[in-house]
Amino acid sequence: MDENASARLTRRALTVAHRVGLFLAMLVICLPGIWIVLSSLRPTVEIMAKPPVWIPQQLSVDAYVAMFSGIGKGGIPVLDYFRNSLVISVTSTAIAVAIGMAGGYAFARYRFRGKSGMFLGLMLTRTVPGIALSLPLFFLYVRLGIIDTHIGMILAYVALNVPFTIWLIDGFFRQVPKDLAEAAQIDGCTRWQAFWQVEFPLARPGIASAAIFAFLTCWNEFALASQLTRSVNSKTLPVGLLDYTAEFTIDWRGMCALAVVMIIPALALTYIVQKHLVGGLTSGAVKG
Amino acid sequence: MATVSLKQLTKRYGNMEIVHGIDLEIADREFIALVGPSGCGKSTTLRMIAGLEDITGGNIDIGGRMVNDLPPRSRNISMVFQSYALYPHMTVRENLGFSLKIAGAAKDDMDRRVAEASAILGLDELLERRPSQLSGGQRQRVAMGRAIVRDPDVFLFDEPLSNLDAKLRTQMRTEIKKLHAKVKSTVIYVTHDQVEAMTLADRIVIMRSGHIEQVGTPDEVFSRPATHFVAGFIGSPPMNLHQATVSDGRLMFGGGDSLPLPGQFKSKTAAGDKVVFGIRPDDFYPTGHGLSSGGETEVHRVELPVSITEPLGNETLVFAEFNGADWVSRMLNPKPLKAGDRIGMSFDLSRAHLFSAETGKSLRS
Fold first, then answer.
1. What are phi and psi of A236, to 5 degrees?
2. Which residue segment(s) compose the domain that A35 sits in?
3. Could you say which residues of chain A have pLDDT below 50?
4. Strand B186-191 vs strand B342-348: parallel, antiparallel, or unpaired?
5. Regarding predicted confidence, which is higher, B183 or A280?
6. B88, B99, B103 member nearest A284 (Cβ)
């Protein structure tokens, strides 16, 4: 066998090994998701079986039907939870991204006193675990009378997300060459127009990523929500999962069904927004 | 009429003054090059004219109107950036028409003006492409197109050719010159490349450390440099500049060698004066291989050893050792030489320069 043939064979073997490796990695990543979907469709006996039953014997959508069939018939107020989750997540994401854009732009473009200190301070707030804040926040919210309200949850989530959105968007604005905004100003734009016409479109992938992350943080957050919500007024889907636990039993199947209902909008949103995540848009703006 | 006038223009960042009160009058339709080494304040000056930097002191007038505090969009200027600064998310057509769109121009008018600019610069084939799909030279042309579409009073160029390779640079230089002839606007062109400045500009402004050293036509700054710095900066290869002391009608160089004091400086120097002697490579040549200046009466001949040669085809740069240093000379109709050869060299002293060692100013009046 000549050298070229053996090199070709090695390359093919490596490609196959690479694909097998990728498949195994994806399997490990996807397995919990698949398991949740499967568990929502099969009886509790099978879910609790030891050793685990890999191939479901019988599938049914009973858990989903029960979930929507109203209180007293095994159902939970899932539509209320869904609405709460949506209102709280969308509003707080919009606010956090707006603040993130303003802050990120300021950090990327302007020089001001105490800039690095402020930036560090923002990052430090991320080191405090959300659960540690839940008790002080609870007392504060009770005093303010915003416990179990949308506004209370939105405030908490905006505070949670702003440091992250500023940090992420700052990085993207830094990648947009300053010359472009200057060229736009010479071309007749005001500072504001230069931002919207030139800098914003170029930083859009970063802003879209910040929005996805902020939304998912709110959508999936449990620790704070479980303390600050009380009723269908403001309970979000993750907190709603607790409705399936009773003193002595846990309805694993119902819980998994609700988890699936929770995952679907998050997946859909990520799918819709991902087309904006095309990086490298700025290539060609300036030399080489 | 788009004259540009700078009066006592100053720029300070904190305590550091970058531009020290410069004065400059630029005539309508004039092509002015600001040239100088890095950090001399030329780009800052241009950015102040553009309105991209606030001014600390002084005045800027464009077309007789004071624009000190006006934003860039109100100055009716356009600018070509060193980085081109094309909008990457827009096609070439959209890049060209962006300023018109912002100004709210009618679609017909916009199409017509984009088509005109595109025809002048040969961009017709590229109109639907994005900047990332263009070569460096094409991007440069789009940047110029974007500038001319606006029909500005003043064009500002900030080192527009420095990212191009040597061949393309020469080509674009010609295009810029043609463009100026066509559009007949006032041009202010910043470069660190003295060849660009010499070939393009009607007048050259040589800057150093935030001051203007000299303003003049290319011929003036080349033939009659006002200072020792200008003499060294303009011309390639640069002028030979060496310290000397005037003594007994001669220039004594530290290493023991001397030259006769050029006649035109006799009345302007006194014994003991410290000076800088300057002579261009064209005026210091292997005997029989130079251009006669008509001042043959003042040619001083010596025999000197050759240290190295740089053959360029039609001429050779010969580095001859004089007073312990290498002096560069230009040899026309070259003949082969090698290091160590001793050859007869001619100093055409009628074309030599003398500068005060203290102030750096030319002693020629």
1. -100, 170
2. 3-60
3. 279-285, 287-288
4. unpaired
5. B183
6. B88
